[in-house]
Write a structure and sequence with these properties.
heterodimer; A: 2 domains; 9 helices; 67% helix; B: 216 residues; mainly alpha; 2 domains; 56% helix
Chain lengths: 206, 216
């Protein structure tokens, strides 16, 4: 049996996703299912809330837990099944998108005559502007589509300001040759492009 | 646009402070294209958010704990990916385990033997039944009941590779010790039924193969 050394939870928590999967596999090979279970718990619990909240924006509340569980189980399956999963988090994002799309495809077939959500304020409720199920699923692709069309430097600016919450002056100090007014312009153009793509139903961001 | 930016920053700030920000509550504060934009941006933020630091021993959502339990049985058990897949398929098909067992027993021509069929099916979900011994007839019936394919079920049974070292039915799981009993609607771990040699019937053969696993 291969040599295997257990790690305490606080050390597991510091491992990246891929290292956690490798640790769980090593634990399994060493006949230590309890250690494998701890690693799986850190992986699943660590991603659960983010996946669950993404799902909650897209589908009715009563199905959120099942869909989230399905996504997390499928991603973990892929990671343990030896498929090429370069980055677990990216794979999780891909599976989340697919499962939400699958859910709406099924709902279209089975709930054709029943409103998907009865309370307009509940999760999954849509404004009339984005009422079609296709639009509902595809709005998530808009941001990635617009980002993909930016240069690497501009993409970094948008990621840092919009998704990491840094200020324009912080970014101007960190990125060589970037002025604060450039940062504002780049972010502004990005947001206008996102809105235009949403209004046009253009998931490629063009 | 300013409102969208403000709401996104508030959401991110609440999330980073560990406040478990609820995206739906933020979406309710916007309308029309603003709402669609906010949703797209929150989604992009959550996609990029790193794995959260967690204490596995602390309170977690019941569905998350159930998923960890199923995945652990899959990774450490003898039934491939069935412990993770079968409950998911049941949930999608909106079937209780007892309904699956009743229909499975009927499809296998074993009406009246639901208890025995149920014990084997339970062992498949628990990860204690070696997948290789389960016949195509059982998988055909399950595929029809669950709305999937026999090939998918067979493939899932092979998914993790060979048996993990030291996996001897329930004994392998006795050492896990993490599943919370309150999560489980069924008994915690059921070892696969082991019929005595010479007393095997057709149901045993359908779930364990023509010969006892131990004698192969």
């Amino acid at each position: 049996m291969p040599r295997f050394e257990r790690k305490p939870d606080h050390e597991l928590d510091r491992l990246d996703d891929e290292a956690l999967v490798a640790y769980a596999r090593a634990a399994r090979e060493a006949g230590d299912p309890a250690a494998a279970a701890r690693a799986i718990a850190v992986l699943v619990y660590g991603h659960w809330r983010n996946v669950e909240r993404r799902v909650r924006m897209k589908i009715p509340r009563e199905h959120v837990e099942d869909v989230t569980a399905d996504i997390v189980a499928s991603a973990t399956h892929s990671a343990f099944g030896g498929r090429s999963v370069v980055e677990f988090r990216a794979w999780l994002a891909t599976i989340t998108r697919r499962r939400i799309a699958d859910y709406h495809r099924r709902a279209k077939k089975t709930l054709a005559t029943v409103p998907l959500v009865s309370d307009p304020d509940e999760a999954g409720a849509r404004d009339p502007a984005a009422a079609s199920e296709d639009a509902l699923v595809e709005t998530r692709d808009v941001v990635e589509g617009v980002l993909a069309r930016l240069s690497e430097a501009h993409r970094t600016v948008v990621e840092t300001v919009v998704f990491e919450g840094h200020t324009a002056s912080q970014v101007a100090q960190e990125v060589p040759g970037m002025r604060e007014d450039n940062v504002h312009q780049i972010v502004s153009r990005f947001r206008r492009a996102v809105r235009r793509a949403l209004e046009d139903g253009d998931t490629q961001g063009g | 646009m300013a409102d969208v930016e403000r709401l996104l920053h508030e959401f991110i700030a609440e999330d980073r402070e560990g406040g478990d920000a609820d995206p739906v509550a933020y979406l309710r504060r916007a309308r029309g294209t603003d709402r669609a934009e906010l949703e797209a941006l929150i989604d992009a933020y959550l996609t990029r958010a790193p794995r959260r630091r967690v204490d596995p021993a602390a309170d977690q959502p019941p569905a998350a704990r159930r998923t960890v339990d199923e995945l652990t049985r899959a990774v450490a058990g003898r039934s491939g990916w069935w412990p993770a897949l079968l409950p998911r398929l049941r949930a999608t098909a909106r079937l209780r385990r007892s309904e699956v067992v009743d229909r499975l027993a009927r499809d296998l021509g074993a009406a009246g033997d639901e208890a025995k069929v149920g014990a084997y099916y339970h062992a498949m979900e628990q990860g204690t039944l070696p997948a290789a011994g389960v016949s195509d007839r059982v998988l055909d019936a399950l595929a029809r009941i669950m709305g999937t394919t026999t090939a998918r079920l067979r493939d899932a049974g092979r998914a993790i590779g060979g048996l993990p070292p030291g996996a001897h039915g329930a004994a392998a799981f006795a050492r896990i010790g993490t599943p919370d009993p309150e999560l489980l609607e069924e008994p915690r771990v059921a070892p696969a039924p082991v019929p005595a040699v010479g007393q095997r019937d057709e149901i045993d053969e359908l779930f364990t193969g023509p010969q006892p696993q131990e004698s192969r």
